[in-house]
Write a structure and sequence with these properties.
By secondary structure, the protein is mainly β. 12% of the residues lie in helices and 45% in strands. It has a four-stranded antiparallel β-sheet with strand order 1-2-3-4.
């Protein structure tokens, strides 16, 4: 077992997720039923990612992804609640991942696709910041950026 799979293995987290209302992380592209199907039928679709520590508390980072290309459509910060896994934060989206930010924050980064964008190449990114306050994550800033170069960047042919 990898360090970031401690204290809870993917099987324990999967069990908690399947007992949870996943409608909050469902999107137009991935319904709650789709997410449940991935969790039920695909052992490799629940990925343990590097854990992080905020305010002295360890959080495990798990994403539900497609097996073939690791396209993530739901990410979860898992905490230890008296020896049992508990969801501290759940985000859904298009190729969405959680990572540790600065000063006790979590960052959810999500690909933004235009209708004719291929899966390899999103038009931009959406970023949502979450601050940890009084034992819970609260959404703070959010912004979108395009992949288009800014005035100060050169485009190489």
């Amino acid at each position: 077992m990898k360090d970031w799979e401690e204290p809870f293995a993917p099987s324990e987290v999967r069990s908690v997720l399947l007992k949870t209302d996943l409608s909050l992380v469902a999107t137009e592209q991935n319904s709650e039923a789709d997410i449940r199907e991935y969790l039920t039928d695909c052992d490799k679709c629940l990925l343990a990612l590097p854990s992080f520590e905020i305010a002295g508390e360890k959080f495990q980072n798990y994403s539900v992804s497609t097996a073939g290309d690791a396209y993530s459509f739901a990410s979860f910060a898992i905490r230890d609640d008296q020896g049992k896994p508990s969801i501290a934060l759940a985000v859904g989206g298009s190729n969405v991942y959680l990572s540790a930010g600065k000063e006790g924050s979590l960052v959810a980064q999500e690909a933004v696709y235009q209708p004719d964008d291929p899966m390899c190449c999103p038009s931009g990114w959406s970023v949502r910041m979450f601050r940890y306050q009084d034992g819970q994550f609260m959404q703070a800033d959010s912004f979108e950026s395009s992949v288009e170069p800014t005035e100060n960047q050169e485009v190489t042919p």
